[in-house]
Amino acid sequence: MSEQAQARSAPGTERSREETVTSFRRIADEQLRMRIGKVVSVSGSRVLMMIDLPEDHEAEHMPRIGDAICIETGRADIVTSVSGLSAPAAGIGEEEGNILIAELGIIGEFRVGEDGTRLFRRGITAYPSLGDIGASLTLEDKSVLYGTNNENYYRVGEMSDGSALPAVIDAKALLDSNFAIIGMSGAGKTCAAASIVRTLIQNRHPCRTVVIDLNNEYTNCFGKVANVMRLGSGSLSHWMLTFRELVHMIMASAGRLSEAELELLGEAVCAARRRYLQANPSNYVREGTELSTVNVDMPLPYRFSDVVGYLDRSAHTDQRYDGETFRRLRTRLVTVAKDPHFKTFLSSAGAQDSLAAFLSKLFRIPVEGKPVTVLQLADQSQDVAEVVVSAVTRYMQLVASATEQSTPFLLLLEEAHRFLPADPGDASLSSRTLGKIIEKSGKNNVSIGMITSQPRSLSMKAWEYCNTVFAMRMASASDKDYLHEVTPESATDTLSSVGVLGNGEAAAVGQGAPVPMRFRFRRLPDASLPSESRSRRVSSDGLAPLNRSADKDALQDVLDQWRYGVSRD
Predict the structure, then answer these.
(1) Of 59, 300, 439, 495, which has the fewest Cβ atoms less than 10 A away?
(2) CA neighbours within 13 Å on the CB side: how many for 345?
(3) What sequence ranges are listed for the domain Helicase HerA central (predicted)?
């Protein structure tokens, strides 16, 4: 109810100007709304309101872009957001006033729940009418609107409207599907992602998180609750890969395989798996199991050298392939085995069944106080990262399905456009695996958090199955236009501010946010800042402090990466 209406409903009482309004906060504390204006046009989800503020209140209560305004219809209180302001008929003389118009976008409405509590719900049951009053929101209104009074929502920062209200997210809705964090370089995407995960941990929300850290930035973000992994020689072995992943690795190192080579390679891998099982029957072969059932994708150990050995033996007996096919494939396999970039997958120790230990460490089973795994891939090539992301995503889906637990899995994917490209011609190895998970998000207990500075380069499928977007500062006009194309119309007003957002500030839209909102993420402690943010800190004279020893180590790491495919541990 507006201030004037409430005053009329209490006959015999008069309020002085000082008592009526001294500040927005005092009015809010008294649960009084300040009348802003009245509705003069309604079209779909857009409303025009003529601003009608008393002169002595204009400076303090004039609406601004992004402000929430309540339209009192008599049947429901409709919540709108200011998307534009104009003065279409400005006064010419000093005594003539201006006609001021606020353009509003409908967000939803306040309702009363079955238990009598006030609720905010997206969508409306009835449109406003011409002449309906538009009023400012009280602090109680804002608490209901932004979900700060909901114990199931978690605080991630502060609202940007100056109300000092906390900004909260709906963690369950966020993890029931996929979400995206987008923005230009330096806007604070890594800090935002870390802040969301830290919020889940601090509120003891059940979730196992794997961070694909392509730049080794997250090392300190989660403190003692994170397990930091750096893939070493044989930690993710060749035999843990599917045939497609193995082929990708071989072709990345030794060139494209012909159809005949692919067929021969599949036979050689199956033979190598059977050979290892025959040597270790008690460990792998169940009673009644036939070795003929072994297929190319079974995650059973085998020696890479046995694949080469099969080619050597079959070259003299198998007449289905010519000698050149055997020689080409053997040469490719030897090339891969010697390629230092693929040392991650090829262990000199031979085949050891470390799958259970690897999955236990990667997915924190048991958790043991560390629900987060940071998988560092900064010293790996794109081809290696492709294979790793594909394998990790695939195993995450399998583990989540097999355990049948209520604990959701979250994969935080840095530079998501590299693994989920928009151009079908650039379809990556991991895009198929990720695509399957994205389509079934909410059903398979796995969600993907996609982080990117190139929203236009992210696949349309990723956008179709993304239910929450945290948009940070974006300078590119084409990226901003594209963002409006892939998000609901109701988010347009909130997202229009992305060009003027500050560092660490975001516009959140979708199911994970109680309402489209602009807010600032809570700042991480200095000790928990991403490595990139820490490296940007400079001394008081404006110059980064010199560290000759560290510089030499960094240079040597670069040389080792060029020469051997890995940095020094």
Answers:
(1) 59
(2) 30
(3) 155-394
